[in-house]
C-alpha cells in the first residue's frame, strides 16, 4: 500500500492554533489491518506517527519513545500479548494527558485482558480506554459505517476520544462496564468459530438463530462471573460484534470454524483460539456450565468428527 507522507511523518510540536481546529498528535503502534483502518479514519485530520515491530516497505522508521513523548493519543493496534512489554517501554515517556486506547480483543500470555494490563502498568496514573464493537477494517477503509463502545471510567476521556473521531463514520458510545465489554469482546471470538462450523456443515439459518441465543445466554453468565454487568452482551461489544464476526465472509474466526468442520488443522490460530488456551491454562472461570463454549473448545483441541460432535451437543441441550 502506498503511504501518504503526512500520515507517517514523525510527530512535531504543533503551532499555536484555536482549540477547535488544533489537530491531535497520535502514535499508532501496529500497522496491520486495524492500524491501516485507524490511519484511514484519522489521517489528514490529525498528525500521525506509525510504528510497527516488523520492517514494512514504505513505512519510515521512527524512534517510538520520542514519538510517545509527543503524543496526545497512543493507539495500540496490536494483539493483547505484546501490550505489557509495549506499555512498560512507553509509559515513562508519556505526557500526563496522553490517552492510551486499545482495540485488542484477546488475552495476553498470562491470561490478562488489556484492561488488566493497563491497570498493572499505569496504576491509575495514565488515562486509558478500550474500543470494542463491530469495526471490520475493510469496511472502515471503504468509508462504511462502524460502531463501538468506548470503555473508560472517566467521562472526560470519552469526550476527548469522541472528538478525535468527529466527522468520521465511526460512531462511539460510552460504557463504564470495562470488565463487561472486555469479556464480551474476548469471548465472542470463541462463539464465532461455532457459527463458521455450523455454516460449513450446512446446518441452516435456524441453527444460526439458535447459536446466537445460546451464545448470548452463556456470555451473560460468563461476564457476570468476571465482574461485568449481565446485560453487557446485549450491546455493541457483545451482540453487535458477535453478529459481525460470526456472519461476515471475511471474518477470521468464522473461517476458522469452516476449516475445522472440513478437518483442516493447519494454521488454526487467532485470538479466539488463544483465549480457549488461556482460560484452560489459568482456570480463569468455571467453563462447565457452558456447553456451547465446551463444544468449541473440544473441537479446537481435537478437530475430528465435527459433525458428530455437533449432533451429540444438540442431543443434550
Please supply descriptive tags for the structure shown above.
single chain, 317 residues, 11% strand, disordered N terminus
Provide structural commentary.
This protein is of the alpha/beta class and 317 residues long. It has helices spanning 5-8, 33-42, 64-70, 83-90, 114-122, 137-141, 155-164, 178-200, 205-225, 236-247, 252-261, 271-282, 291-301, 306-315; strands at 25-29, 47-51, 73-76, 99-102, 128-132, 146-151, 170-175. The chain has a seven-stranded mixed β-sheet, with helices on both faces. Strand 4, helix 5 and strand 5 form a beta-alpha-beta unit. Helix 4 runs parallel beside helix 5. It is globular. The termini are far apart.
The SS-based structural class is alpha/beta
| SS summary, helix count | 14
Indicate the proportion of strand residues: 5-15%
The largest beta-sheet arranges its strands as: 2-1-3-4-5-6-7
Q: Give the strand tally.
A: 7
Mean pLDDT: 92
